[in-house]
Backbone:
């Protein structure tokens, strides 16, 4: 590759600097550089480690590794060229460097370090007239190189007057007199791709800060650069009062301490020179994006804090070696070591230090026993003695990580070292190539070698900054990348090499040998300023360890953080170990190795043994006036008796209303009523649908149909407050009443049996629950495990089971066999942190997980709520958008003091030190607020702000409402210490009545003093004298400090008056995702949506969630949402801010006395953009400000700022239109003399006179409460972990190990991504995590197989405090409602119609007590022609000679539009004798439904069955589908042969075990909803049931009812109506009767003895009832009756046992109605129409057919024909059938649509007929259906005289057609000998002849008389037969026809329309 070749213009970005020029370079340097490049590579395919030596391979690589580049604003004009690809960039051709000189980036050719980071504290000789400037090297984008340049060659402030040329010196080696910038850039190794130009590469002035450290100053204003024009968009720092340019403050208090808070982004424009205050970070408002080390805006996160270019969660510190960090790519891990946070002065990696610190607390293997493993892991060789006093000398216990090979024995002072196997495990994990890669054929590729592992480890350690801690996960990612890259190289070689007879030798990339290793490691460590020390041993590690201990004792390793000991000579294997000797690193690592239990033990030990007294003694020396306690006592004595009234009486004018009694009332205070929010309802419904899907699945794991009610038990962690909180929830929700578990007016105590605290007493209560579930199999018990991530300890592995019975309780109770096997217990785990339940061994199916939905989807708000949830992602977002105060902050002065004391007291655990420091700060702050202003220097600005607002807030409210400060102290003993100390200080300061201090301990309740108790009762209007607050929510409005202890929060909710969440004491070394999110979850909050949000300049805190990527999935939870970063414009994105605290313009209340004389003066607030969103805590909102100040804010001026040294804060957003650079003036406050004083000292500020400052009325703190979430203070380490994000925008915290109780399954895992939904995250954890042996799921080795999941277990996850309890209680309610609904059914409940039309006949069936009809008596009863079934309310009345109907007799007529009005139904509870649809599965039904052990599921055979039918003139072929289990009902020619007949019993059989009559159920469209499960209805009796289905529905019915016999109709009947089914059932049955008679005759059975009855039942008959009659006397009319539900078996056996039953043709029963009167049931039997459920005698009715063409009223038509044939129809009035309302299928499945268009327009019934040969639209429907529908609605067009003329009905011959309710018909049969109504005295108004056959003759018609003008309608199959009929019946004699009176149904010819002819009577 030619070196002078120009780089392609599209790839103008510098990569690894010397990648292209290596052929002549020495091997070591190549190797060195390539290792660097490999480590820092961020492309998807990292570069092969040594490929630079083989440029051919390099060229292959470059082709594969393209990367698109989106221009970043500054980079183009900077010309920082190079390519994003990994191909070597073409460098600008310079002279080759002299042989042997240093060519490392960041160093000059003499080998001296020029990086600002490294030399910021070193004295630099600057000749007069020269200035120090920072040069930017394209290969080190995050660093500045320090140069001395003659200022004449630099421009002035306006970019002018710079002399051409250059004059400069090298500050590294001191070489002077460079006259050409090209020559100079060569010397300082400024590797560039174009001609070096000073304008491009000299970027910043460098200036000294207050501590004397060199730091980046303003940009050099080169003419022509567009920096100035971009100033406003980049968001210049507008607020800080900058000191004068060269101001130098006092030296840093701890020179060894890094200044925590420098920011690489410099202010823009020369006028803003100088860091603000004493602290450079105040300039760090918004920097240009290039410093973030990423190139495209998509990857360009905000500079998130004052420390570093925030985007990269790993920011692994300054590259103390030479290599340039490359631009990061998606492929780099979030913890990638490439991401160097260069560019700031001292201790730049500060932030990263906290990120990575102690993340090693996630051991990859379980450390059994105490974590300070002082026994050797694999020991060999001679022992090594640990020197005495090691801890005393070193100030920290060295942590020794065992690496490869053998590890020697240690002896001696073992307490002063910690040995850990973590690194060993990490190496082992990286050696094992994961299964995922093997699947891709990668198994042949070798794992990464041990030498390479060690070399990479050394390299990684070299890169770590002085305040960073190594992280095993980073190393794993480095190994993964390195391995993957060599793996991909091989693949590429195979892919790209030219065809060869054999593959290239694998040694193309030379491996590192063990001999080279120590030398290469030394080379790598050579540039790191001795922070990594390499010790090479000859024989064993023991000599290296001894050497290390010697050096430690001699103090020679003071600057060394890591010692790497290598023994690489023995037989080709290497031994190694790494000792962490840096004080900071060793402390964090050793503490992170402690388990939570050991941590508590250690702290306890230190407190009990009095080790902490030295700390107290040290504090007492700090105060100039002597011990704080002396001061307190002095104050107490002075103020006794006259406590300042200013604090008790509120002196500010109150804007408050007075209540009736005149006492002040606060309008802001109201306790929220419990109500269910739309989100909770949605989640409850999701839960319900999951439970239903378990029930619906074919696994039979849950039979919802068998449950009648719901019961529940909620298990919660052993926290008294959580317990009371849950009780109140249950009590207020009303769920107990709704579930019918309790009566009205229940007390809270009654709720206690439903909530179980998992403590020592839990087992008894749980046993009672199990007993209850066992005794009530028809109750569904929901076992709710709330806060389910707590206590996942396995009972088996529980080492503490004897000592602590509550550990492992969850496993012992919830996973016991009884719970797992009980079919009526559903377990619901509820948690905000489900990760530990989402492992490879979990019991919960991924399909049974329910995630809280996102509130927005694609920008649309899914559920409108008046409150918006503010959780972790929103808190993080508040730190990103520069619109207002960040809600997450840290306190740098507190951190600085803790670090200093950590070095002073190495034996104390940092938790102890942190607690004591914080308590000291609070005590000092209280004293400062009480007037001891000298104490301000002994607290931090943050603590002072909290305390001031706490004490002053009650004065701003007429009722004294205040705010709550949550002080989280996880360790209970420390919490007790803090409580005592703060209570003591409060008492001495006479503040007892100003605020309460509450010790919140999980094991005990809440104690509140009498004074505050009285206030709470008054505010909450509580009369009860005994009342005490039992939950934190009841402390609403109480000014208090809540010291919240306990290792984990247990789900306690906090009131809305919580203003500050002080988490500075959380155990930050234990960084796992669950622990971190759990602590931050305490602050989660609902913000009122109604609050008027004034959008100021870029007010983005409450941006819609649509901005968040998580909104893409409805299942997304809010916890992992990152920022809205990627979607904002670059302008917005640059507006970052530092979050050290609020200390800049608005925080330090202590010092605001300069504003007004009053100590509680409000500070200057944020600019108007933030006002409504975030009023300064405790300060007035904008309305409350002084007018002048308000005006100034609007004008974009600076508010007077109060600045604290260690607390860089925020600038109010400037007005983007103002481009003027503002400068502020600061006067330095005299620093206090004491050593620690500067950490808290504050400076006053000069206030420009801008109008008088008037204090206006302030608000009650409760007003802000609903608008603004609390402010959270975090440890710096946690803050950085939470706010850092990876390249996808995912917060780094989310990619931590998810929980203490799990481990990563492999180090070869992909990274989590921000775009993952909750569901995807769950699947990720299920794939990549495994439980530890102590985890309760450890034994469940299902590995994701379905059978490993427990079928009745669900998991509900959602962000903390979002309302999960309300959601699951709502779920219980709707589940209960659904179960009740499942056991209920809507049945038709309609009165019989036309009762009053039945004429009193002389015959009644008077034997009221007869169980069966007496045949002789019954024959005398007249037939009742009138239809009484309510479904025929709209049908034509049938006249008989008994009735003399007047037209007004017939009840109300429905208007046509009422025809479709919903019929009346009643909701009935299903009895145990009901018929069911497919949704019912109980255990008894399994066999019935086809789950029979003897027969394979769905095994059935298809049989054809043919018979001829003369009337059809053809053979009918039907098909039977007969399941194997039902074959015994049939006769076959041989087993499996031809079907011959269906077996029929004998009339004489008397068995009670079966039902004799076969039941046929015709059905269509109801495969799911039809009630075909007759198992319970038949009470288990044997019966034959046949479903009659259409051919096209056969498959679906067979699928749903595999064990039912199907009769499949021929395909010609696919569009037929129910008449066809009835017709075929009857014909088939008669044919079968004949066959059975013939078959059994051979067996000696008489033909008449074969049972002739069948049942034809509707598919909606659900239950059957019987009426019990109590007759007063034999013939008495007085009787009482009652109705009860009975089985169908009972009814059928009763009917089948009737005497003379074979003489009846049709037997039926009443339709049930709740309105049935005694009149209907008084007579036991009627001779009338029967419907719905009929018992049909196929023998007697042989010659009476159903009309196979009919769709409606076919049963009425058939009944009339049976009666006219002289046969008996008997209705059993004391039996009734209930019919279920089924909304689908049946007659509804017929839709009449147009045949031509697809237009689904409704077609009116009038269009169903048309004139023949017309152009009318043809319809796609059977002609018969059109005819019936037309006549039902429009028959008055044919029979105008008949309308409402019931005295003159229409004569209908041989058929009954419904002519609508307003026309009556008279049915007559033309058959000879038939029974007909006497018509001699009747005159008819019309004649209807429908398809009349040869029995109808002219003479027959002449018997009837018609009115003049009566009309005739003849209906025939075609026009021809129409004419023949007219002729044959001689109709033209009496009727007059016209041509236009001919019609047809609107069918096409191929659909065979019906034709009509109408005429008038002459």
Residues:
């Amino acid at each position: 590759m030619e070196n002078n070749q120009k780089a392609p213009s599209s790839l103008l970005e510098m990569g690894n600097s010397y990648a292209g020029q290596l052929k002549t370079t020495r091997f070591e340097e190549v190797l060195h550089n390539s290792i660097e490049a490999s480590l820092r590579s961020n492309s998807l395919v990292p570069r092969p480690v040594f490929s630079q030596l083989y440029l051919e391979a390099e060229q292959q690589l470059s082709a594969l590794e393209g990367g698109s580049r989106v221009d970043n604003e500054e980079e183009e004009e900077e010309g920082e060229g190079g390519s994003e690809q990994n191909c070597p960039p073409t460098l600008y051709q310079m002279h080759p460097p002299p042989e042997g000189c240093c060519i490392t980036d960041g160093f000059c050719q003499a080998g001296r370090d020029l990086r600002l980071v490294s030399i910021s504290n070193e004295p630099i000789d600057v000749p007069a007239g020269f200035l120090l400037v920072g040069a930017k090297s394209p290969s080190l984008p995050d660093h500045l190189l320090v140069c001395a340049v003659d200022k004449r060659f630099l421009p002035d402030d306006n970019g002018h007057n710079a002399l051409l040329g250059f004059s400069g010196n090298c500050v590294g080696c001191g070489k002077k007199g460079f006259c050409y910038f090209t020559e100079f850039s060569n010397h300082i190794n400024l590797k560039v791709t174009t001609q070096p130009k000073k304008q491009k590469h000299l970027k910043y002035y460098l200036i000294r800060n207050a501590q004397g450290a060199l730091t980046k100053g303003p940009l050099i204003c080169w003419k022509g650069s567009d920096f100035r024009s971009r100033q406003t968009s980049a968001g210049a720092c507008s607020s800080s009062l900058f000191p004068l340019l060269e101001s130098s403050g006092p030296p840093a208090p701890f020179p060894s301490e890094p200044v925590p808070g420098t920011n690489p982004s410099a202010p823009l424009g020369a006028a803003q020179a100088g860091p603000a205050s004493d602290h450079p970070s105040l300039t760090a408002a918004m920097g240009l994006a290039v410093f973030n080390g990423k190139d495209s805006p998509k990857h360009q996160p905000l500079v998130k804090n004052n420390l570093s270019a925030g985007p990269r969660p790993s920011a692994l510190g300054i590259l103390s070696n030479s290599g340039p960090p490359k631009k990061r790519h998606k492929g780099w891990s979030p913890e990638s070591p490439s991401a160097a946070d260069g560019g700031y002065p001292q201790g730049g990696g500060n932030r990263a230090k906290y990120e990575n610190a102690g993340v090693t607390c996630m051991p990859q293997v379980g450390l059994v026993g105490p974590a300070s493993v002082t026994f050797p892991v694999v020991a060999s060789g001679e022992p090594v003695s640990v020197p005495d006093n090691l801890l005393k000398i070193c100030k920290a216990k060295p942590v020794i990580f065992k690496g490869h090979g053998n590890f020697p024995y240690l002896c001696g002072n073992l307490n002063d070292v910690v040995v850990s196997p973590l690194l060993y495990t990490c190496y082992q994990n990286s050696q094992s190539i994961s299964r995922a890669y093997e699947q891709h054929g990668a198994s042949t590729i070798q794992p990464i070698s041990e030498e390479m592992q060690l070399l990479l480890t050394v390299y990684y350690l070299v890169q770590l900054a002085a305040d960073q801690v190594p992280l095993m996960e980073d190393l794993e990612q480095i190994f993964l990348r390195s391995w993957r890259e060599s793996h991909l190289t091989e693949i590429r070689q195979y892919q790209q090499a030219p065809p060869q007879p054999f593959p290239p030798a694998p040694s193309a990339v030379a491996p590192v040998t063990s001999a080279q290793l120590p030398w290469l490691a030394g080379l790598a460590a050579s540039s790191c300023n001795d922070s990594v020390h390499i010790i090479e041993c000859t024989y064993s590690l023991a000599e290296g360890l001894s050497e290390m201990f010697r050096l430690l004792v001699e103090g020679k390793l003071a600057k060394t953080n890591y010692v790497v000991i290598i023994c690489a000579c023995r037989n080709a294997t290497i031994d190694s170990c790494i000792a962490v000797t840096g004080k900071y690193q060793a402390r964090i690592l050793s503490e992170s190795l402690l388990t939570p239990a050991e941590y508590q033990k250690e702290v306890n030990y230190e407190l009990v043994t009095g080790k902490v007294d030295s700390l107290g003694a040290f504090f007492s020396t700090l105060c100039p006036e002597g011990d704080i306690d002396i001061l307190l006592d002095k104050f107490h004595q002075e103020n006794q008796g006259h406590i300042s009234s200013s604090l008790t009486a509120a002196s500010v004018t109150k804007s408050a209303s007075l209540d009736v009694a005149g006492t002040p009332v606060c309008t802001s205070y109201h306790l929220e009523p419990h109500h269910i929010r739309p989100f909770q309802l949605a989640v409850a419904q999701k839960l319900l649908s999951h439970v239903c899907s378990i029930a619906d699945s074919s696994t039979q794991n849950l039979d919802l149909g068998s449950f009648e009610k719901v019961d529940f038990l909620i298990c919660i962690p052993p926290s008294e407050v959580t317990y009371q909180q849950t009780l109140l929830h249950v009590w207020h929700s009303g769920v107990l009443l709704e579930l019918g578990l309790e009566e009205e007016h229940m007390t809270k105590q009654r709720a206690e049996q439903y909530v179980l605290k998992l403590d020592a007493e839990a087992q008894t209560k749980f046993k009672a629950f199990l007993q209850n579930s066992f005794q009530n199999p028809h109750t569904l018990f929901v076992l709710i495990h709330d806060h389910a991530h707590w206590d996942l300890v396995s009972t088996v592995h529980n080492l503490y089971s004897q000592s602590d019975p509550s550990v492992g309780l969850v496993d012992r109770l919830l996973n016991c066999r009884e719970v797992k096997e009980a079919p009526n217990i559903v377990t619901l785990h509820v948690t905000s942190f489900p990760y530990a339940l989402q492992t490879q061994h979990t019991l919960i199916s991924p399909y049974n997980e329910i995630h809280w939905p996102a509130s927005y989807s694609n920008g649309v708000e899914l559920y409108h709520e008046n409150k918006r949830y503010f959780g972790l992602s929103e808190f993080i977002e508040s730190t990103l958008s520069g619109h207002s105060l960040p809600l997450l902050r840290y306190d740098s002065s507190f951190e600085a003091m803790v670090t200093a004391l950590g070095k002073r007291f190495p034996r104390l655990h940092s938790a102890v030190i942190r607690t004591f420091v914080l308590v000291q700060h609070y005590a000092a702050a209280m004293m400062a607020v009480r007037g001891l202003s000298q104490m301000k220097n002994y607290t931090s600005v943050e603590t002072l702000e909290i305390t001031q607002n706490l004490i002053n807030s009650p004065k701003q409210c007429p009722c004294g409402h205040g705010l709550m400060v949550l002080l989280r102290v996880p360790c209970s003993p420390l919490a007790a210490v803090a409580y005592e100390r703060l209570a003591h200080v409060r008492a001495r300061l006479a503040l007892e009545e100003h605020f309460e201090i509450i010790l919140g301990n999980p094991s005990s309740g809440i104690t509140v003093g009498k004074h505050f108790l009285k206030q709470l009762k008054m505010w909450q209007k509580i009369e009860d004298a005994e009342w005490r607050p039992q939950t934190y929510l009841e402390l609403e409005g109480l000014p208090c400090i809540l010291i919240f202890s306990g290792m984990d929060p247990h789900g306690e909710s906090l009131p809305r008056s919580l203003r500050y969440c002080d988490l500075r004491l959380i155990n930050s070394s234990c960084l796992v995702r669950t622990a971190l999110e759990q602590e931050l979850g305490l602050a989660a909050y609902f913000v009122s949506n109604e609050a008027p949000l004034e959008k100021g300049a870029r007010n983005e805190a409450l941006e819609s969630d649509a901005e968040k990527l998580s909104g893409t999935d409805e299942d997304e939870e809010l916890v992992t949402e990152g920022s809205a970063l990627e979607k904002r414009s670059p302008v917005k994105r640059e507006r970052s801010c530092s979050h050290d605290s609020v200390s800049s313009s608005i925080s330090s209340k202590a010092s605001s006395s300069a504003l007004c004389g009053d100590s509680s003066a409000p500070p200057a607030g944020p600019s108007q953009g933030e006002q409504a969103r975030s009023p300064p805590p405790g300060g007035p909102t904008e309305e409350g400000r002084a007018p002048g100040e308000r005006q100034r804010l609007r004008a974009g001026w600076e508010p007077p700022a109060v600045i604290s040294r260690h607390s860089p804060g925020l600038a109010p957003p400037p007005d983007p239109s103002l481009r003027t650079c503002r400068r502020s003036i600061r006067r330095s406050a005299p620093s206090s003399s004491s050593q620690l004083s500067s950490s808290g000292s504050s400076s006053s500020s000069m206030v420009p006179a801008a109008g008088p400052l008037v204090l206006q009325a302030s608000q009650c703190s409760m007003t802000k409460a609903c608008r603004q979430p609390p402010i959270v203070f975090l440890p710096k380490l946690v803050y950085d972990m939470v706010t850092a994000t990876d390249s996808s925008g995912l917060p780094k915290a989310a990619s931590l190990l998810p929980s203490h109780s799990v481990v990563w399954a492999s180090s070869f895992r992909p990274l989590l991504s921000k775009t993952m939904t909750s569901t995807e995250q769950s699947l990720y954890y299920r794939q990549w995590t495994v439980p530890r042996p102590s985890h309760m799921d450890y034994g469940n080795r299902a590995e994701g197989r379905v059978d490993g999941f427990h079928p009745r277990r669900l998991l509900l996850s959602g962000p903390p405090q979002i309302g999960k309890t309300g959601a699951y209680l709502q779920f219980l309610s709707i589940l209960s409602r659904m179960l009740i609904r499942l056991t209920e059914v809507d049945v038709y409940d309609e009165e019989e119609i036309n009762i009053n039309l039945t004429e009193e006949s002389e015959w009644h069936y008077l034997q009221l007590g007869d169980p069966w009809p007496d045949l002789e008596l019954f024959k005398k009863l007249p037939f009742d022609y009138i239809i009484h079934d309510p479904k025929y309310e709209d049908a034509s009345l049938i006249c008989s000679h008994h009735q003399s109907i007047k037209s007004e007799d017939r009840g109300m007529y429905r208007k046509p539009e009422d025809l479709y009005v919903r019929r009346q139904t009643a909701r009935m509870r299903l009895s145990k004798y009901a018929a069911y649809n497919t949704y019912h599965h109980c255990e008894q039904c399994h066999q019935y439904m086809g789950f029979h052990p003897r027969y394979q599921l769905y095994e059935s055979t298809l049989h054809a069955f043919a018979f001829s039918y003369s009337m059809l003139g053809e053979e009918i072929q039907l098909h039977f589908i007969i399941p194997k289990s039902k074959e015994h009902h049939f006769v076959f020619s041989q087993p499996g042969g031809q079907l011959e007949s269906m077996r029929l019993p004998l009339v004489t059989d008397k068995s009670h075990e079966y039902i004799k009559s076969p039941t046929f159920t015709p059905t269509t469209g109801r495969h799911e909803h039809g009630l075909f499960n007759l198992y319970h209805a038949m009470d288990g009796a044997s019966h034959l049931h046949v479903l009659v289905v259409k051919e096209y529905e056969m498959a679906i019915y067979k699928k749903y009812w595999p064990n039912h016999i199907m009769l499949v109709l021929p395909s010609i009947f696919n569009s037929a109506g129910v008449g066809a089914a009835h017709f075929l059932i009857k014909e088939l049955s008669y044919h079968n009767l004949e066959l059975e008679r013939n078959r059994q005759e051979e067996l000696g059975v008489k033909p008449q003895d074969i049972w002739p009855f069948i049942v034809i039942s509707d598919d909606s008959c659900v239950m059957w009832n019987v009426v019990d009659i109590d007759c007063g006397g034999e013939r008495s009319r007085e009787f009482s009756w009652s109705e009860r539900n009975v089985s169908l078996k009972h009814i059928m056996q009763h009917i089948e046992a009737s005497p003379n039953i074979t003489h009846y043709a049709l037997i039926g029963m009443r339709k049930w109605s709740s309105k049935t009167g005694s009149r209907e049931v008084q007579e036991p039997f009627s001779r009338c129409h029967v419907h719905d459920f009929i018992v049909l005698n196929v023998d007697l009715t042989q010659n009476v057919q159903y009309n196979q063409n009919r769709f409606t009223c076919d049963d009425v038509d058939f009944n009339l024909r049976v009666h006219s044939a002289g046969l008996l129809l008997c209705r059993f009035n004391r039996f009734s059938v209930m019919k279920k309302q089924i909304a689908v299928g049946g007659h509804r499945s017929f839709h009449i649509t147009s045949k031509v268009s697809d237009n689904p327009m409704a077609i009116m019934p009038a269009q169903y007929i048309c004139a023949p040969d017309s152009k009318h639209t043809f319809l796609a429907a059977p002609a018969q259906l059109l005819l019936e529908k037309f006549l039902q609605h429009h028959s008055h067009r044919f029979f105008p005289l008949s309308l409402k003329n019931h005295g003159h009905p229409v004569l209908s011959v041989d058929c009954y057609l419904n002519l609508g309710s307003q026309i009556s018909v008279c049915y007559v049969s033309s058959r000879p000998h038939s029974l007909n109504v006497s018509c001699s005295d009747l005159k008819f108004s019309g004649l209807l002849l429908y398809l009349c056959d040869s029995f109808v003759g002219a003479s027959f018609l002449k018997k009837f008389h018609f009115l003049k003008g009566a009309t005739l309608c003849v209906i025939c199959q075609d026009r021809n037969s129409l004419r023949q009929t007219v002729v044959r019946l001689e109709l033209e004699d009496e009727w007059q026809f016209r041509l236009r009176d001919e019609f047809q149904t609107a069918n096409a010819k191929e659909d065979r329309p019906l034709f009509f002819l109408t005429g008038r009577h002459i």
Q: What stands out?
A: The chain has a mean pLDDT of 76. The two ends are 115 Å apart (CA to CA). The first strand starts at residue 130 and ends at 137. DSSP finds 49 helices and 59 strands in the chain.
